[in-house]
What we know:
By secondary structure, the protein is of the alpha/beta class. The chain folds into 2 domains: 2-170 and 347-360, Glycogen Phosphorylase B (Rossmann fold, 3-Layer(aba) Sandwich), CATH 3.40.50; 181-345, Rossmann fold, CATH 3.40.50. The protein is 46% helix and 14% strand.
Amino acid sequence: MRFLTIVGARPQFVKAAVLSKAIQDADAGEHLIVHTGQHYDDNMSANFFYDLGLEAPKINLNIGSGTHGVQTGRILAGLEEVLLKEPSDWVVLYGDTNSTLAGALAAAKLHRPVCHIEAGVRSFDRGMPEEINRILTDRVSDLLFAPTETAVSNLRAEGVRDSQMSLVGDVMFDATRVYAKQIQDCTIVSDLGLETKEFALITVHRAENTDNPVRLAVIVKALCELAKEIPTVLPLHPRTRAALERHQELKDCMARARSLRVIAPVGYFAMSALERESRFILTDSGGVQKEAYFHGTPCLILRDTTEWPELVQIGASLLCPPTSVKAILNGARFRFDAALGIGSCFGSGDAGNRIVSALLGCDRPTISTAVA
């Protein structure tokens, strides 16, 4: 069997690595990875493949950045060309990026069987481009792999047949187990001169925060205040760096915060080590929310909504729209009561194997493959 995986952003590289290992373990066939180039910075892309032991993709479209329409259109055109040349039994898509949507459209129009990993995830906020990407990708995919019970419920509410979906768990939870030793051996915390559980970690990259001057100012000022109480680490996303270049006063505020460590984006192992060893995390990233839970670290979500409501419901995370500095600081001091790090909301750590078994058992896309 030939699997053609489409990736474009670094969380997808991790997911693809998990699936690639499962394909290899099952001796299931060939796995061709196509990189759209949506993330093109080495710290956001090439270094991830090296860290995860993945061969560099044989095909890289090198699309780069652009508006949603321009970027999605370029990826769609490039992927159509690839799919016309490369045969596949399954086109494999992950998550909610523009690469995911473009891959779904290109494959569906060419009548290629499509499976969507991380299907059924919903924030119910259509102001998020990612939400549109999720919904449309699910609608044109032949087989939907849901990470949680909530995702299954969402799909059923949208009229998806049980024969089209499988509850398999989350491949990102698999990754924390597959790469546990590498994460444990990573020395980034000591390299930064930090003590375990004596620092805060923050990531900000979503357009709703970086492109909104008011919200960005609130986050930066809260970050600077927080750094007075506890050493704080900020791996700076390229989009956030560009936003800060437009607001010199915010850059000056950060420069004055002595206990704020601004670093370049880091690889999967280093980021996981920071997540595991921090006292708490502030983020607007969907993936970091889950990883915080996997590593047993409380998480403050700097957004109005989340696609992972399970984490809020069990008390592992707290939604905190960045509307005021006080709100963020109070959220950072919130007492998290849930037992953390068990991953029970996201399966048993064998999602990759379940997905491969399901795909191998399919004679055609519409056959039932429930494996949970």
